[in-house]
Specification:
This protein is of the alpha+beta class. The protein has two helices and two strands; from the N terminus they run ααββ. It has helices spanning 13-16, 24-40, and strands at 54-58, 67-71. A two-stranded antiparallel sheet has the order 1-2. The longest helix has 17 residues, at 24-40.
Length: 81
Amino acid sequence: MSRHTRTQVSILPRLRKLVVDHNVHENLLTNKEHQASNYNMRGKDFSELKSNDMVCLILTQSLTNEAVKARVDKPMGTRSY
């Protein structure tokens, strides 16, 4: 309840020693690699769009952000979508 003790709390001498882990950087890198592999496990590349494929578009001018069905006329090369 945010009150300070008036006397010092006794602590065991073995708990006063500073423990330093020298492999911190290596552990962080292995953890980062593990997280990256878990994140990328389900990642897939999109297939190329062909003519007459059905797609859904969300128009930027629309206030409701509703998806509109559309059909591909012709492929435009490599694009991000």
